[in-house]
Amino acid sequence: MSDVVEVKDEVKKKRRKSEGRKSLGILLSLIILCAIISVLSPRFLTIDNLRNVTSQATVSAIVSIGLFLAILTGGIDLSVGSILALSIMMMGIFQVKMGINSFLSMLLCLGVGSLMGLINGLLLTKLKLPHPFISTMGTQKIARGLSLAVTAAAPISGFAVPVQFLGSRTIGPVPASVLLVIVLYVIMFLFLTHTATGRYIYAVGGNVEASRLSGINVDRVLCIVYTISGFMAALAGIVLVGRVNAAYPLAGQDYETDAIAAVIIGGSSFSGGVGKIYNTVIGVLIIAVLRNGLNLLNVDSAWQTVAIGVVIILAVYLDVIRQKKAVISK
């Protein structure tokens, strides 16, 4: 019996070392990228620019939490950008058009996002669709169409100060949006490591059938994951509205691709069950720094899109290599 315990302890130690090396590698990638851009553009390391990078990364960081959970279960959520747009357009209708209280309007915005996320989960679990790629691609189109239809594609501006707070205000020297991201990532880390539901999410991503046989309500876990993803998309939308003081129906376009890239760069695997939430925020910063650096170097926006596409392909390729190494080591 003691031999079995020793073997398990040894496996855990090796896993921790492997995870530690992975986290260090991701962090070093960010540091090297920052060093290269700072050499190419002296403006990069200025206080104003670094504050701008972190502020711009906050929306993507919040969206990436939902994508991280979806990918952790072996799924994906392509609808987050469209859910963001629909949620903020409804918030604009509630507050600006109907005169509803700002705080209630924000709660309703979060409710719309959560509801769309729950619908994603129900489509996947109740209709037994083969993969969330299908269900979330469908809701992506539905949510985007609704966001355009509710105001005939017209933007809404003139939000009250409470709505603008998270996107444009500071608490001391730190932007409120940055503090929000820190709090959200700490909460999500504790949720995944110290709650039964968090452990179930990892288990479902590792092996769905084994999770079912062990008594885990897989459908419930998946519905929770996609509801949280919708909630995070709506919350990111509130931060975005606070920054520009306007809601527009085409908001959130391509946010899902940046978030997917950030999650995979952060070491998560498309096969599910592998990933750490704190590495995801490093992945978000890598994408944000890359975009900012390309802007500082006056790279055309078309080539910036090409660069992000290359990064996504490389990130997925690295995931394939990691999976092969994991199989060989077993």
From TrEMBL:
<keyword id="KW-0813">Transport</keyword>
<feature type="transmembrane region" description="Helical">
    <location>
        <begin position="145"/>
        <end position="165"/>
    </location>
</feature>
<keyword id="KW-0472">Membrane</keyword>
<dbReference type="Pfam" id="PF02653">
    <property type="entry name" value="BPD_transp_2"/>
</dbReference>
<feature type="transmembrane region" description="Helical">
    <location>
        <begin position="302"/>
        <end position="321"/>
    </location>
</feature>
<feature type="transmembrane region" description="Helical">
    <location>
        <begin position="23"/>
        <end position="41"/>
    </location>
</feature>
<dbReference type="InterPro" id="IPR001851">
    <property type="entry name" value="ABC_transp_permease"/>
</dbReference>
<protein>
    <submittedName>
        <fullName>ABC transporter permease</fullName>
    </submittedName>
</protein>
<feature type="transmembrane region" description="Helical">
    <location>
        <begin position="221"/>
        <end position="241"/>
    </location>
</feature>
<keyword id="KW-0812">Transmembrane</keyword>
<keyword id="KW-1133">Transmembrane helix</keyword>
<keyword id="KW-1003">Cell membrane</keyword>
<feature type="transmembrane region" description="Helical">
    <location>
        <begin position="171"/>
        <end position="192"/>
    </location>
</feature>
<keyword id="KW-0997">Cell inner membrane</keyword>
<feature type="transmembrane region" description="Helical">
    <location>
        <begin position="102"/>
        <end position="124"/>
    </location>
</feature>
